[in-house]
Amino acid sequence: MDNMQIVLDEMGKELNISWPEVVKKILEEGSISFAEKKAYIMDTILICAEEESEEEVVWESRLQALNENACITGYINAHEDFIRISDAEAALWGYMTLQVKFETWLYEDTCFRMSLGVYENHLYVLSGENIEAVCKARLLAEGENGTWDNMATRILSREEEPICSYVKKNMDVFLYLLMENAGEGVRDQEEIVLQILNDKNISLEKKKSYIALMKNYVIRLRDIQDVSLWDGLLGCRAVSYTEQNILDYYFKGGEQWSDTLIGFIN
Length: 266
Description:
This protein is mostly helical. The chain contains 16 helices and no strands.
């Protein structure tokens, strides 16, 4: 680092300490270009990241203080160009401190380490576009087309991939996106279907919506722990037509021939 850069860094550090609102003012200033705003934000993050480790808590707090009304976080979220950063380690420290969630995720060879770091640390919004981008970059073989009809299987069967744990923690969000994008129905592996329908953290409403989209079958009705879902499975004919399934439904239903059961048999 040359002497001039050292001087500029010290000036920036002192300015941020003495005038914490300066970052917000800079981001709101229309005459300052995006490139200049990006450079200032990254310089601020890198200065904080480079401080001595024993002062890390102090500089985390200072960076958060500069983030008035989440001004830095919001600005970074809206501009995927902040993934195009060479110093990945320092930038990722800053992004995690600021709780960044990029609206658009990039996966580029020129910024591979940053793209991967953002992906591995779940620093992106779980949106349909980002899920498709992750699938293309991480889950699909070259030339393979990813579709939403088996998106749950594609993601939840890959436990070694960070998107799997991210989706598992946000299943209601994921299933909402699935409803929005899987217009022709879903054809997931039975193991994944059971995982979804037996997940106690997923709302009953989302499970019922998922059943309505199913184009394949559950082999054994008794494998679905929540009996309140059985009507929907029979009504949508999303369970195998077997004597055992009919008997299981009959005895769980108070040994009555309900309209749902009669309709399924006929």
